[in-house]
């Protein structure tokens, strides 16, 4: 029997989702992103399945910044976390949001991280109200752009992609503003920014909520930029890949216009993982991974935006410059299911 209880967290705007299952074998704390996003849905779906199958009790804190969550996981302060794979790379180098850690400490911490499964988070896009002075990628300079939370992979990607497409740098050519995920809807609608450069899904919960304040336009990466050397190189960076699809294949949102010169959506996508500390016991990691494999369709159909996430795939985004590998229990689950785990992704 399953029971879900929502309660206030210790930090403002943090909500804990407590999924309780009778006779659970493990009590696991977990951290994920805001409701209505791929990381949130992936984590809470896993929690629900674990509850139903009496594998574990998950206590999930949502609306967390992935940068902090990954560090908490690596330090053993939480059991399961979202992890954009670019963050594992940056942690291993003591770079970006982990610069204060330094390379030696960052390498030590990331060595504690193991992967259960990987998936795509969604795309990235520039969008604005039709009443805004921003009418496309070429109008960013001199404007105020909401481009992510104060820290994390989303901010890093938003800045990088906007620079490649528009030639504009945050702080030099435009004013970037950042707010926590929970504040995003208010900031989008209150006119604080001329446009938003953020992760997007199809449909996108933040955009859907914001349409109540007026019609909006979302811009895909122009085809010539997409095929250019800079963007192709960017998509080979750790934890990044391409996402493309025909706009006719997604349901339209009333009040939202998606612009692409040939009707094809193009953007980089963040490849993320559900990660655990290496200290998680073999059987728990194996059981959780097996639950993902056996319930792949449940994940992909949980919300419309989950359909393109590739939950249940093998080796997505791992190897190369990405320093994390599967948990031994996860490897066992994949191999029992007849899936071949790349040697470079094995611990």
The number of helical runs is: 12
**What is the residue-averaged pLDDT?**
90
Helical proportion? 25-40%
Report the CATH superfamily of the largest domain.
Periplasmic binding protein-like II
CATH-assigned fold name of the largest domain: D-Maltodextrin-Binding Protein, domain 2
CATH class of the largest domain: Alpha Beta
Radius of gyration: 20 Å
Structural class: alpha/beta
| Tertiary shape | globular
CATH architecture of the largest domain: 3-Layer(aba) Sandwich
Number of domains: 2
Topology as H/E string? EEEHEHEHHEEEHEHEHEHHEEEHHEH
Q: Beta-sheet strand percentage? A: 25-35%
Q: Give the terminus-to-terminus CA distance.
A: 35 Å
How do the helices and strands line up, and which of them pair or pack?
Blueprint: E1 2-8, E2 15-21, E3 27-31, H1 38-52, E4 57-61, H2 66-74, E5 80-84, H3 85-93, H4 102-110, E6 113-120, E7 123-129, E8 144-146, H5 153-166, E9 175-177, H6 184-189, E10 195-200, H7 205-210, E11 216-219, H8 223-226, H9 229-234, E12 240-246, E13 256-259, E14 264-277, H10 282-294, H11 296-301, E15 325-326, H12 328-336
Parallel strand pairs: 3-4, 3-5, 6-15, 8-9, 8-10, 11-13
Antiparallel strand pairs: 1-2, 2-4, 5-14, 6-14, 7-10, 7-11, 12-14
Helix pairs in contact: 3-4, 10-12
């Amino acid at each position: 029997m399953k029971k879900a209880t929502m309660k206030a967290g210790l930090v403002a705007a943090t909500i804990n989702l407590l999924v309780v299952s009778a006779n659970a074998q493990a009590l696991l704390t977990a951290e994920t992103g805001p409701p209505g996003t791929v990381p949130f849905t992936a984590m809470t779906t896993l929690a629900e399945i674990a509850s139903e199958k009496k594998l574990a009790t998950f206590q999930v804190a949502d609306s967390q910044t992935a940068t902090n969550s990954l560090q908490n996981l690596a330090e053993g302060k939480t059991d399961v976390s979202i992890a954009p794979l670019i963050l594992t790379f940056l942690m291993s180098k003591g770079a970006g949001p982990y610069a204060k850690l330094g390379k030696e400490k960052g390498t030590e911490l990331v060595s504690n991280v193991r992967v259960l499964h990987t998936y795509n988070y969604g795309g990235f896009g520039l969008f604005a109200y039709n009443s805004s002075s921003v009418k496309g990628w070429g109008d960013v300079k001199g404007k105020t752009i909401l481009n992510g939370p104060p820290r994390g992979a989303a901010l890093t990607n938003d800045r990088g992609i906007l620079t490649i497409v528009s030639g504009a740098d945050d702080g030099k050519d435009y004013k970037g503003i950042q707010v926590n995920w929970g504040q995003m809807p208010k900031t989008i609608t209150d006119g604080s920014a001329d446009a938003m450069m953020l992760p997007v899904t199809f449909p996108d919960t933040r955009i859907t909520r914001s349409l109540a304040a007026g019609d909006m336009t979302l811009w895909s990466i122009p085809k010539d930029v997409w095929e250019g050397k800079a963007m192709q190189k960017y998509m080979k960076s750790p934890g990044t890949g391409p996402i493309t699809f025909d706009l006719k294949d997604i349901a339209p949102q009333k009040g939202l216009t998606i612009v692409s010169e040939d009707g094809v959506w193009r953007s980089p996508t963040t490849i993320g993982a559900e990660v655990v500390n290496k200290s998680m016991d073999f059987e728990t990691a194996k059981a959780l991974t097996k639950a993902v494999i056996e319930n792949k369709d449940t994940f992909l159909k949980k919300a419309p935006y989950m359909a393109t996430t590739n939950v249940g795939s093998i080796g997505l985004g791992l190897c190369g410059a990405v320093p994390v590998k599967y948990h031994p229990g996860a490897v066992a689950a994949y191999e029992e299911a007849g899936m071949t785990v790349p040697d470079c992704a094995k611990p």
